[in-house]
Design a protein that fits this description.
The complex is a heterodimer of chains A (366) and B (804). Chain A is α+β, with helices and mostly antiparallel strands and 366 residues long. Chain A has 11 helices and 11 strands. In chain A, helix 1 runs parallel beside helix 4 and helix 5 crosses helix 10. Chain B is an alpha+beta fold. Chain B contains 20 helices and 41 strands. In chain B, strands 28, 31, 32, 33, 34, 35, 36 and 37 form an 8-stranded mixed beta sheet that branches. A 5-stranded antiparallel beta sheet of chain B has the order 6-5-4-7-10. Chain B has a 5-stranded mixed beta sheet with strand order 13-16-19-20-21. In chain B, 44% of the residues are buried. Classes of the chains: A alpha+beta (366), B alpha+beta (804). Chains A and B meet through helix 5, strand 1, strand 3, strand 5 and strand 6 of A and helix 8, helix 11, helix 13, helix 14 and strand 28 of B.
């Protein structure tokens, strides 16, 4: 037994001193391997008398356990040290740049069109579209602007040499109003729609581009009047600009396709060089800004569109999308909208995940 | 239209302040576009008296004046005007004042060594007229020391925008009438200067074309003396932005600006024979007062005598017979022309004038006689002469529109309750006659009134649109229903998918330079080309979205951008049925410049290739809901002759041979050259109208998907390496392999491709990983062997040989 104890002490010292897994394995084989001294000691138990065995066995087993535990503990320690050394050798300079992951952007006009669709959907308006290359009848005549109408001159129309089936000129639509006519002809009344899209006028300066975007609104039903028009625009602008202090001023005006016709002004103030919508335009520090034209749809237009003007009436309005986008999001140069300059788009464009929703607020915050 | 407050008060008795007037104008639909107060511009200019005038010691043409300004010591002023002399009164600009004509601020200075404390001003310097021969001479009774603006009686000038439906407000009097109706004061009766008319008009006046010129009234005045207009008349014309010319010209302009009534004065000496309104003859020419010659056609109306055309009716008079300083005898013309014909003529000739603006909108048919008498009276009063009786040819429209008004319509349409008696008062004050049964007779000048809705507008605008209260639109029960159409949903998804994949959305012009548009036009397509483009760069409607994006990429490259990844969702414009357009929704996408910049990990910059375009096309088509597994990569679409895409590095994605959903690839070098682009550019065009949409069925929407549970058993993969002819498309082999055992093969992909080395000339090696999915039971070795045999056999039909 004494011999075993001293063998054990020597083995434990050797295990403790082992500095590699190989050296440790050598100790394990020497002690616990088939021919190891612990294994050999265990084999001697078979030749012992029961009495001797009952005395010797626990002692040998205890030694075996002690040596095995020491080996396991040492193995764990050596493995941990080895992993640590490996990891230390794998260190990266993570201040180096990662590969680029490009995120694109949604154009402000598209974003605002989505906002319009979202807000007006809540008011029961569908989104309608129509051709941009129009015929004279839909763009003018059906909107109560016949050939000789002086208001036509105000439209700076782009014409094509081509003629429509009825002999009228083909042209680029000067407003989104022809969509009113097409939608009423197709769907009849009652109807609620907005029609956003590209429109064209041969006009180009600091604040006008020959192509721009408008949204038309149309409500035809029974008992619709100017008060509903005012409410609708107020409600829209409050939702669009997400502020309650929107004040509208209706001003008499003239459009051949509406009667009465009203111009819609909104109160604003200047903050720095920027116009901020909100407040009453007559208050000190505030003023009015024209936002769009509107009015009660002219009887003749309803007739042209096949709707009985004695049964139905309603309102229409038109707003500049680029303009309300600029007011909301702070762009100041309309022409940059159509440049396709990635620097501008990265700054004024929107994340694809800014899908407008009513619950989040339709606007994408700066 | 511009007019001074003084002028307005000629016609409107009112105590209203300027801001009350301007607020009321805007509120009733006469939008104030600006207010200018000449008193502000003339601040610092005073009435002053020249006490002494001495020659300047060092300059022959200058004088040194001593000027009394009404306060303090006289000021020394150096002046170069020949008419400056002791004892005269004039206008002195003091140091600090800004000269209106040139914006120069006056200051104390030395002129040729002599101190000068201000400037004696000319008419032109104060923008009161063109005269600049000397300094202003004021009458002796001008009171020294007064602000010149006060002395001059200058009053604020209001600029209003008159909508085209209100020709009756294209004169100050009409504006005064509207303001009076709105409660701003009382409309004054028109003051007609008295004159004696004697003898019949010696000139025969006729209208031979009553459709174009229903009425032509005239009168001869003999023995007038043309001269500069008096101060009050000049002031009014100047406030309207008109240059005073001479009495006779100014008075006709005054009639137009004050009463919206254009008139014309002919020099009688230049006329011969009867003066007739008639159709122009084709090719007939006239030299107009603007010194341009116009060639007329038979749709136009002219005033002519036996010898020649003297007037493009309703638009502009002729140079030959216009009045001059020497005119002594004249014929006045006051006519009524058909508004539509005037508009057409004006547009055809491209000729705008104040008269046309009024005639084409419709002048008051009831103001011919009064207008003629008023003009005659003013001429006789100011220029003398003897007037003949008037002569009248034809009849102006005289049948008034009568409208039955239901006063309840005002609230039903206008959304505001206006008491009946107020409605009556408003209409009557605007000149409408309202009887007890609410039958409304409209004044002839209000040719904009078509029916009851127009009367509602009159009532509401005068009553005040601010009194219209907001009323909520009736709302459907519950939560708002979805409104977007499938096409709209498709666009939204594509847009955000493209942006999420790293592309910036651009909006480019729908019109292109012709050559750019033609370069991308399909073979034989006749593009829509504008008749009147704003520039040659915006002329032809696009039939592809790529050129616009390419032009943007080119601009960006010029700015030094290393990469451009743009897309646009918009229309392409083609020919449709019945002469209409066929506008097809399209997504265009351009990848230009560097795909990745040079970097510490990857080394050199990488450029975009056709597979980047393919990846974008397929990803977006999947986002759009196209069946990606059924897409076939096929040959490019037929293009125009120039070559749009690289013929060997472009293709189409189709569902079936004729259904082209997208095209993609590298652009043709000829395209890059035409668009001045350096380096390879990849592009994609997705044709939204070709993407099959999920049918919107009747009845409730179903959201449930087909049932699915992941297979319990693991899939297995097997690799096959084939030797194939070099020309064989990998996609064909892949499709053959995939189709070899549709029950078990769930996937196949190419994982290796090489040529050369051990691969014989003219062949390539394609390695394919096939994924097999067992159903209820695992595959047995024999089954796997059988599947492998099928795969090898299917591949062999494509000319593929399994590599040993």
């Amino acid at each position: 037994m004494t011999e075993l104890t001293s063998q054990k002490d020597a083995a434990l010292a050797a295990i403790s001193a082992a500095d590699t897994l190989d050296a440790l394995e050598e100790q394990r084989v020497g002690a616990l391997g088939k021919k190891g001294w612990v294994s050999l000691a265990l084999k001697t138990l078979g030749q012992m008398s029961p009495e001797e065995r009952s005395e010797a066995a626990p002692a040998i087993q205890a030694i075996r356990a002690e040596v095995a535990d020491a080996i396991a503990a040492k193995r764990q320690a050596l493995e941990a040290a080895e992993l640590e050394a490996q990891l230390a050798s794998e260190t990266l300079d993570l201040t180096l740049p990662a590969p680029d992951t490009a995120m694109g952007s949604v154009h402000p006009v598209s974003q605002v069109m989505d906002e319009l669709a979202e807000i007006f959907a809540d008011l029961g308006f569908a989104v309608a579209t129509g051709p941009e290359i129009e015929d004279d009848w839909h763009n003018f005549t059906a909107l109560n602007m016949d050939e000789s109408h002086p208001a036509r001159a105000m439209h700076d129309t782009f014409y094509f040499p081509d003629k429509a089936a009825d002999g009228g000129s083909m042209l680029l639509r000067t407003h989104t109003s022809p969509v009113q006519i097409r939608s009423m002809k197709e769907q009849g009344a009652p109807i609620r729609l907005i029609a956003p899209g590209r429109v064209y006028r041969s006009d180009s300066d600091a604040t006008h581009t020959p192509m721009f975007h408008q949204v038309e609104g149309l409500v035809i039903d029974k008992n619709i009047h100017l008060g509903h028009l005012k409410w609708t625009l107020e409600t829209f602008f409050k939702a669009f600009f997400e502020r309650e202090d929107i004040t509208l001023r209706l001003r008499p005006s003239y459009f051949p396709f509406t009667e009465p016709s009203v111009e819609v002004d909104v109160g604003y103030s200047n903050e720095g060089n920027r116009r901020v919508v909100g407040g009453h335009g007559d208050e000190p520090g505030y003023d009015w800004m024209e936002l769009g034209g509107s009015g009660m749809v002219n009887r003749r237009v309803l007739e042209f569109a096949g709707i009985d003007p004695d049964e139905y009436q309603g309102f229409a309005f038109g707003l500049g999308i680029d303009r309300i986008a600029m007011l909301k999001y702070g762009m100041n140069d309309l022409r940059a909208f159509f440049d396709g300059d990635p620097r501008w788009l990265a700054h004024y464009g929107f994340s694809p995940f800014d899908q407008p929703t009513l619950s989040a607020g339709v606007g994408a915050r700066a | 239209m511009k007019f001074s407050v003084t002028w307005l008060k000629d016609h409107l008795e009112t105590d209203a302040t300027l801001s009350e007037i301007t607020n009321a104008l805007t509120a009733i639909g006469l939008e104030v576009e600006g207010v200018e107060d000449p008193a502000e511009r003339l601040a610092g200019f005073k009435v002053a008296k020249v006490l002494t005038a001495e020659k300047h010691p060092d300059a022959d043409k200058l004088q040194v004046l001593s000027v009394d300004t009404g306060e303090g010591d006289p000021l020394q002023v150096v002046c170069g005007a020949p008419n400056a002399r002791a004892g005269m009164k004039g206008v002195l600009g003091l140091p600090g004042a800004v000269v209106p004509a040139n914006g120069m601020q006056l200051r104390k200075s030395a002129i040729r060594g002599v101190e000068s404390n201000g400037m004696m001003c000319s008419v032109r310097e104060l923008e009161l007229g063109d005269e600049h021969d000397g300094i202003i001479e004021l009458p002796d009774d001008a009171s020294v020391g007064h602000a010149f603006a006060d002395y001059q009686g200058s009053s604020p000038i209001i600029d209003v925008a008159i909508t085209p439906n209100r020709p009756d407000c294209m004169g100050v009097y009409g504006i005064a009438r509207d303001l009076a109706a709105a409660g701003l004061g009382t409309l004054k009766p028109i003051a007609f200067p008295k004159f004696e008319a004697s003898g019949a008009c010696p000139v025969e006046v006729r209208t031979d074309y009553p459709e174009g010129c229903p009425a032509f009234h005239g009168r001869v005045i003999k023995g007038v003396k043309n001269a500069p207009s008096p101060e009050w008349l000049q002031q009014r014309l100047i406030s309207a932005g008109q240059r005073p010319i001479s009495l006779l010209v100014d008075l006709t302009n005054y009639l137009m600006l004050a009463f919206g009534r254009p008139a014309h004065a002919y020099d009688l000496a230049k006329l011969s024979g009867a003066v007739v309104a008639r159709r122009a003859k084709a090719g007939e020419q006239v030299l107009a007062l603007n010194e341009k010659t116009y060639t007329l056609d038979e749709s136009m109306v002219v005033i002519a005598d036996d010898a020649q055309v003297h007037d493009i009716a309703g638009i502009m008079g002729g140079e030959h017979s216009g009045v001059s300083d020497d005119t002594t005898d004249l014929l006045l013309e006051i006519a009524y022309f058909d508004p539509a014909r005037i508009g057409v003529t004006g547009r055809k000739l491209g000729l705008a004038s104040d008269a046309r603006t009024r005639f084409e909108r419709g002048v008051d048919p009831e103001f011919l006689d009064d207008g003629l008498d008023l003009l005659t009276g003013l001429i006789v009063e100011l220029a003398g002469g003897e007037a003949s009786e008037s002569v009248r040819a034809g009849i102006a429209p005289s049948e008034p529109l009568v409208v039955a008004l239901d006063t309840g319509l005002t609230s039903r349409l206008g959304g505001v309750d206006v008491p009946d008696d107020e409605q009556r008062r408003i209409l009557e004050s605007l000149g409408f006659a309202v009887d007890d049964n609410w039958t409304v007779t409209c004044p002839l000048r209000r040719n904009d009134i078509e029916g009851a809705a127009d009367l509602v507008e009159e009532v509401v605008r005068i009553h005040g649109l601010d009194k219209v209260e907001s009323v909520a639109l009736p709302r459907m029960d519950g939560v708002a229903r979805p409104t977007a159409t499938l096409a709209q949903l498709l666009e939204r998804k594509l847009r955000r998918a493209a942006a999420a994949s790293g592309f910036d959305e651009a909006i480019t012009w729908s019109f292109l330079p012709s050559d750019a548009a033609e370069h991308f036009a399909p073979e034989g397509e006749q593009l829509w080309v504008l008749d009147n483009p704003i520039s040659e760069d915006m002329k032809a409607m696009r039939s592809s979205l790529i050129p616009g994006l390419l032009m943007a990429a080119q601009r960006n490259a010029d700015h030094g951008a290393s990469t451009t990844q743009l897309f646009e969702l918009g229309r392409r414009y083609f020919r449709g049925e019945n002469g209409m357009s066929d506008e097809r929704p399209t997504l265009g996408l351009v990848l230009a410049g560097d795909k990745t910049q040079r970097g510490w990990a990857a080394g050199k910059a990488a450029q975009f290739d056709a597979f980047d375009a393919k990846a974008a096309a397929i990803q977006l088509l999947e986002a759009a809901g196209a069946p990606a597994d059924r897409l076939m990569v096929m040959e490019p679409v037929a293009e125009g002759t120039g070559g749009q895409f690289h013929p060997g590095q472009s293709a189409t994605l189709r569902l079936g041979p004729k259904k082209v959903l997208a095209r993609f690839g590298m652009l043709h070098p000829a395209t890059l050259k035409a668009f001045d682009m350096a380096g390879p550019v990849a592009a994609v065009e997705i044709f939204l109208d070709a993407i099959p949409s999920k049918k919107a069925g009747k009845g409730p929407v179903s959201f449930a998907r087909p049932s699915f549970a992941p297979p319990a058993l693991q899939s297995v993969t097997r690799d096959f390496a084939f030797l194939v002819p070099e020309a064989l498309a990998a996609g064909d082999l892949l499709r053959a392999v995939q189709g070899a055992d549709k029950a078990n093969i769930v996937g196949a992909r190419v994982f290796d491709l090489f040529t050369g080395g051990s691969v014989p000339e003219g062949q390539k090696s394609l390695a394919i990983e096939v994924t097999l999915q067992p159903g209820e039971k695992s595959f047995k070795d024999a089954e796997l062997a059988e599947i492998s045999d099928k795969i090898v056999a299917a591949a062999a039909k494509q000319g593929a040989e399994l590599r040993g």
